[in-house]
Amino acid sequence: MSARMKNRTILMRVVCALLFLAFTFCYLYFYKADALAMAQHVLSGGKTHYDRTIGAVLITLVLFILQICVLQITKLTQRTHALTYFPSLLVLAVITNISPKIDLHFSFGAWTWIFPLLIIVYCVCVYLFKQYQPFESDISDRGLFSRLMWVNVATMFVMFFLVANVCSEKDTFHYRLQMEQLLVEGKYDQAANVGKYCQEPDSNMTMLRAYALSRTGKLGEDLFKWPIVNSSDALLPNGKSVRLQNYSQEKMQRHIGPYVKKKLSPKEYFKFIVDRRLGKKSATDYLLCSYLIDKDLNGFAKELKKHYAINDSLPKHYREALVLYTHSRSNPLVEYHDNVMETDFQDFQKVAKSRKNKADLSAKNNNWYSFKNTYWYYYRFR
Predict the structure, then answer these.
(1) How far does CA 33 lie from the centroid of its chain?
(2) With 325 labelled, which of 10, 15, 201, 309 sits at a CA distance of 20 to 30 A?
(3) Closest CA to 346 of 335, 337, 359
(4) Is 271 helix (H, G, I), strand (E, B) or coil?
(5) Neighbours of 105 (CB within 10 A)
(6) How much is the pTM?
(7) Buried-state track 293-326, b at ≥16 Cβ within 10 A, e below 16
(8) Domain ranges in the chain?
(9) How many whole angstroms separate alpha carbon 368 and alpha carbon 354?
(10) pLDDT tens string 232-285
């Protein structure tokens, strides 16, 4: 190999290595850290904790060492050099393609046969490329804009694209992981705001958001700013449709009240510990919000007057619910009047009556936009 060709080859290999290191580290650190933290928590039984920086550095280095070993075996140094990164990127795809049900059942899924199949295909391709490599023609162009460089760079980006797409997560699962990781880190305000534009929220997101808001004392103030999925049963994990994967269920339980052996629904549990004064203040707000989620205004009003003074210092959603309750009952147990909120409620009713179809509920409709975060909107349309 001529000195000029050797220099071009070294430059190309350095660029490919830098691209691999940058992609792998950023992919692990910024996009897959929450998923890996959850997987490690589940597989270790909660005994170990994943650190995104250490994890990203170690995994990147191990995969880079694997590439060096593959290079030493295959000796692919020309147009097909980028393929020496294929095994490393394949392993990266396998370890980061985490199932949302990993806490219920661990399995490599289709990778159990796809991985060995791809390795066999890869070995065949390497053999063929090795036979061709001695006959590769010399490339006259040089530097960063040489054909040798861009053939390999293009191959690297194709492999990056495949890894990112094969291991892409459904938005809902990604948001859930992000919320739980923020809860683990004690960042409750940030956790509450995750996934505000999620198109398909689920019961788990409702549970996590309610808990994050409760930890910041904003459950009765902000809960209905986001879609509520399912009934009040979504407020606590049940181990099936609503469950925690990374955050401690015991820690969540301690925030609300003592464990009760009886099989109770979340609302029944809140009611049980509040009536017996076993729960914390958070349990009272959970109970009141469970009535609101189930649209039980009578139960809400009855419980509210036991625990709160009926005045303008009530949380926003409690005041909205009281205005709605007062206007919908001929003999209300509790009466609440606020001139500003009364005016807003009248405006809401006017807009609600003028609604002709579901399109009128879109955020583009200015009349609806100011009411999307109210309990009235939830009660009437969700």
Answers:
(1) 11
(2) 201
(3) 337
(4) helix
(5) 7
(6) 0.81
(7) bebebebbbebbeeebeeeeebbbbbbbbbbbbb
(8) 3-169, 300-382
(9) 11
(10) 999 999 888 888 888 888 899 999 989 888 888 999 999 999 988 888 889 999
